[in-house]
Design a protein that fits this description.
Elements lengths: L1 E6 L6 H13 L2 E7 L10 H14 L5 E6 L3 H7 L4 E6 L2 H17 L4 E6 L9 H9 L10 H11 L1
Parallel strand pairs: 1-2, 1-4, 2-3, 4-5
The chain binds adenosine-5'-diphosphate (ADP).
């Protein structure tokens, strides 16, 4: 079974990697789908976000995880990749409302598509890519939220 984990990953955090690692142990293959045309303005380009993710996945030693870009509707991406399972991470109740709406819409558009939610690990449940970027912009310590490599990439952007 192939599972899709979509997001912007701008940049990938330890919270995202925890979800990817957990899901990779339960499914045959995980496709991390990196959003091309996010409405949000991103700090990292699409190519950078993909590269950073690929490095993380390699350093975690996850051989059944692939990174692919996606543009358009998630349901079309899922069909094209012979998948009918999407995974999302739930950090707090504040994620739930939005996630529920998207899950219902996707299920309307593609009946067989199931959205499964993984509860974020407590220690990562308050981390988001945007909070990490904000802390970094004030030179705060982000080492417990992202890997050394991601930290380095963020620093490069600040130079
Ligand atoms: P989006 O822009 O679609 O919210 P993100 O890259 O921020 O994309 O997140 C992708 C997925 O990862 C979402 O399901 C989000 O809830 C989840 N996620 C984000 N941060 C964490 C975290 N710290 N722990 C677990 N899941 C997370």
């Amino acid at each position: 079974m192939i599972v899709i984990y979509p997001g912007s990953f701008d940049p990938v955090t330890k919270g995202h990697m925890d979800i990817i690692e957990r899901v990779s142990k339960k499914f045959e293959k995980v496709i991390v789908a990196v959003l091309v045309n996010s409405e949000k303005k991103t700090l990292f380009t699409l190519e950078e976000r993909e590269k950073i993710l690929e490095n993380e996945i390699k350093s975690y030693g996850l051989s059944n995880v692939e990174v692919e870009r996606f543009d358009g509707l998630l349901v079309d991406f899922a069909r094209e990749h012979n998948s009918n399972i999407v995974v999302r991470g739930l950090r707090a109740i504040s994620d739930y409302e939005y996630e529920l709406q998207i899950a219902h819409i996707n299920s309307d558009l593609y009946n067989e598509l199931e959205t499964i939610f993984l509860v974020a690990k407590a220690e990562y449940s308050y981390i988001s890519s945007s909070v990490v970027k904000e802390i970094a912009s004030y030179n705060g310590d982000i080492s417990s939220f992202v890997s050394k490599n991601v930290e380095k990439e963020i620093k490069k952007k600040q130079d």
